[in-house]
Amino acid sequence: MKKLLIGVLLLMIAAAPSYGQSERTLKRKVAIGRFTNETQYAKGLFYNRDNDPIRKQALDILSAKLAMSEKFILLERDGLEELVAEAGDGMQKIGADFIILGSITQFGRKVEGDQRFLSQSKTQTVEAGVSIRLVDVSSGLIIYSDEAKGYAETSAKQTLGFGGSAGFDATLSDKAISAALSQLVENIINKCMDKPWRGYLLSVEDGQYIMSGGVSQGIATGSAFVLYKKGKSVTNPQTGMKIELPGTKIGTLTVVASMGDTPETEISFCTYEGQELEKDNLLNYYLMEK
Q: Does 285 or 139 have the greater pLDDT score?
């Protein structure tokens, strides 16, 4: 009987989940390219786009929600024109896997009251509409586009002069924008994580192989990656878009050390096993998770 109980306990321990270990997730680099306020709300004679409070609220809320997922390295790259120009030269230059472009398409605040003989009530309501586009930097294609609306309100009632007073509530703006973005963030996360992680070979010198990325992106000593040679680029005659055909596996890189102070400057040193590389054409290769 005692042996049976010990056996059952051992089976339970083996089957129990290990909470101290978590599956490695390689973080995607996401640049929030710009967030604009397309409405006329609070745009007076001396309006300054860079100091637009609605725009800043949306940008901060989106950044916070994406950071909470712990799946991304966030890079703030304000300025759509510069981003488009950089994207033409390839992903390595822009330093991100995806770009998020957003705008406040609708924003309104209204106050409604009800005055009676012995009581009065006041309700403040804020409505916000948010539009999001997610761009895959490697292809330049918009892989997700959607719009959502969020609402927030507060009420106060007084009877015979007693009760709360409904003064101006600035937090309603945050709540309405947050409610709209909450409807979009999950889809943004899923779209980014659905695409396989990619890294790049930066340098090959005297038998030393250096790849992009480091500790903050989830790359650790002993991590192994498959090196591919890019497939042929062809043009789809129906759309005029260039399509990269599947690459060819040519070897494996294993991380031995990493360095760098920021996500943009992190690199990893690797050992390599596989076919000989064209050292003068490293942009023709990419890395994927093994």
A: 285
Do 73 and 160 have their domain in common? yes
Residue 22 scores a pLDDT above 80: no
Range of the domain at 110: 25-194
* Distance between CA atoms of residues 33 and 77, nearest Å: 5
Q: Give the CATH number for residue 116.
A: 3.40.50.10610
Q: Identify the H or E element spanning 32.
A: strand 28-37
Place of tokens 């399509």: 243
CA dist 115 and 124 (Å) reads: 15
CA 29, CA 137: separation in Å to the nearest integer? 10
Whether the pTM exceeds 0.85: the reply is: no
Render pLDDT for 111-130 as a digit per residue (tens, 0 to 9).
776 665 555 677 888 899 99
Q: What is the mean pLDDT of residues 44-72?
A: 82
Torsion region of 186: left, alpha or beta (phi above 0 gives left; psi -120 to 50 gives alpha): alpha
Q: How many domains does the chain have?
A: 2
Query: Other CB atoms closer than 10 Å to residue 132's CB: what's the count?
Result: 23
In this structure, the number of other CB atoms found within 10 A of the CB of residue 42 comes to 13
**What's at 3, amino acid-wise?**
K
Residues 6+ apart with CB under 8 A from 70: 25, 27
What are the DSSP E strand ranges found in 77-166? 98-115, 119-136, 141-159, 162-163
Residue 146 identity:
D
Side-chain half-sphere exposure of 136, counting CA atoms within 13 A: 14
Q: H-helix or E-strand containing 30?
A: strand 28-37
